[in-house]
Structure formats: C-alpha cells, structure tokens
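Re: beginner question about structure tokens

> Can someone show what the tokenized structure looks like for a real chain? I only ever see the sequence side.

Sure, here's an example I had lying around. Input first:
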Amino acid sequence: MSTHRSDFIGHPTNRVVGTVPDAGQAKEAIAALLAAGFDRQEIDILHGEEDLHRLDLTGAEHGFLAQFHRTVIRTFELDEFKHLTEHVEDVRAGRYVVMVLTKRRGQRIVAADILHRYGAMFVGFYGRWAWEDLPPSGQTTPAYVPVLFARAWNAHDSDALAALFDEDAEFVNGTGLCWHDRESIRKAHASRLERVEGATLASHEAKVRLLSPEVAVVHARMTLSGEAPAVSRTTIATFVVHRAGDRWLCASAHNTDVILDQETSGVASAGSVRA
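And the corresponding structure tokens:
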C-alpha cells in the first residue's frame, strides 16, 4: 500500500523552476528572492536523494491520482514530463532545483531573472497545462555575459558559447593559449567540452565597470566543479564587451586561475622560480 507524503509536489503549477549548480549560489539566490518580496513558504529547494520522492516521476509513492497524472504526461510526451525528468536528474547529481511559487506574470519575470543572475540552468514556468521557457530578460546587460557563457558551457553548446564573441574576438585561457577569432574559440571549447562530462561551471556575481555607455569590462569569479581530480577550480574571467544592437558582445576575454596564498604564479614560497 502506498503512503502519501505531504511535501510531494504533484505538479509544480504556477512555479518558476531552475537548476542552480552549487550551494553558495543557491543560498544567494534564495536571499535575493526573499529580498525581492517572496515569502519563504513560496520557495522550495530540492537537493539530494532525500528530496527525490518529492518529484516522484511514477507517482507510485503517492496514490492513484498522482500515478494517473504522471501517466497522462508520459503518454502524450508533454514538455512537463521531459523537464521534470531533467529536474530529477539534477537533484540526483547533487545540484539544487529551486522552485518559486509565482501567481502573477510580474512575479515570474522577477523570479526567473534572479535565478538567471545566480547561474541557474533550464529556467522555466510550469502553468496548469503547459511549460514555458523563461530566458533572461536582462540579456542586454554586461553582467549577463558570464552567466550566458556558463550556461552554454554547461549545455556543452560550443556554438552558443562562440556566439557571445565578435567575429575577430581574442580569448586567452588560464595557461596562456590565445585564440584569435570566433571560430577558433568555438573549436577550442568544443574540444574541451568533449572531455569534461559531468563537470559544472558556475558564474558568481560579476563586477561591471562601464568605460562608456557602449563599452564595459566585466570581472566574474567562476568555479569549475565535478572534473577529475575532484577538486574545484576557481578562476577570474575578464570580458571586454561592447553594445551590439540590443545585446552585448565580447571583444576579448581572459581567464586567470585563483591560487590562494600566492602572490605570483612563478615564484614559490621559498623564493625559487617554479618551472
């Protein structure tokens, strides 16, 4: 006999949902949602095996009506089931699925923008019968360039990543390799992404300095986790961006590793030069 759990999410109706890669960003996103006026009881955060029952795909744990609802969704191969499946996989993988109850369209936009700001992927709105993709409405701000870069990286979409750059853009990576145009940037990242299965890139709060109304420098702290060996790697990514119509394109980017307790990368603590 199946048992009913009161915290089961039968269907995330009227909720904006997104996957945030790490705990720090999830915490910051929740704080931003509360500051924006959402009540704590309107926000759910799912993480780890203990929360999987709340997104039970079969409905087996929650009685006949839940099973019937899931069967209807699977039978018609609706987007809701496909995205619910993605959320289950995200929870299983240790990422944070944030759900925000939003009964008005204005709330939807605010919640989606906050989730995007803190690096959320697969952000969408579950209506009563349909799922709606919610891209960032703030794509016209320089601060979203590193967010969009991380999203393309996590989706293993080298085309979307390269589309953030000018045709003749420059990209210098953490080891000093330099790529001199959009196509070489695309090829280099396509090759890299083939070797990082299971890794996640997170973009933290960006600092923007406007050099003019049309040009800005963006510094973003970015963390790569889940890559072997199992040690997170933190970098500072610098993007020089300029306005191009209704969006911002990157003319130059430089990625620098963050090495704690070390002022330079070439001099060891004893004063000897490292190879």
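Each token stands for a local structural state, so reading them left to right follows the chain. Helices lie at 23-35, 63-75, 79-92, 105-117, 144-154, 158-162, 182-193.
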